[in-house]
């Protein structure tokens, strides 16, 4: 028979509880990009998920208060970039509010479907947006992979306990 949990440690659900619980969850780090009418936009995401293999679908969350939201909301295609452990500064740049994320030293080029593609990442996909699902103060973006490149080398960058980290053997 197992012992009952200490009910005194239970906390009612709140934004802080959710953030605290997910600080315990190591997540891969990605950068999502899209091309707006007059400028590219992008942000760091740890919510990237493979949804289905057939058709090849992915999802990620984006806050509707994010500076990237208006561009992503109007985009037909997005870029999904898997960052390597050597790219913590790139991840921080795309996470920083008010930064010119595409200015040097960020290296990028215009890829398929006009999507900004970051150079030097482990892998990238260009995906067609198929749905924007309301989820509180966020939207869950469902997108179908169209084309990609997985020729980058290295190990993935992780996010855990509020910091960027590398895998340990």
TrEMBL record:
<feature type="domain" description="Flavin reductase like">
    <location>
        <begin position="22"/>
        <end position="166"/>
    </location>
</feature>
<dbReference type="InterPro" id="IPR012349">
    <property type="entry name" value="Split_barrel_FMN-bd"/>
</dbReference>
<dbReference type="InterPro" id="IPR002563">
    <property type="entry name" value="Flavin_Rdtase-like_dom"/>
</dbReference>
<dbReference type="Pfam" id="PF01613">
    <property type="entry name" value="Flavin_Reduct"/>
</dbReference>
<dbReference type="InterPro" id="IPR050268">
    <property type="entry name" value="NADH-dep_flavin_reductase"/>
</dbReference>
<keyword id="KW-0560">Oxidoreductase</keyword>
<protein>
    <submittedName>
        <fullName>Flavin reductase family protein</fullName>
    </submittedName>
</protein>
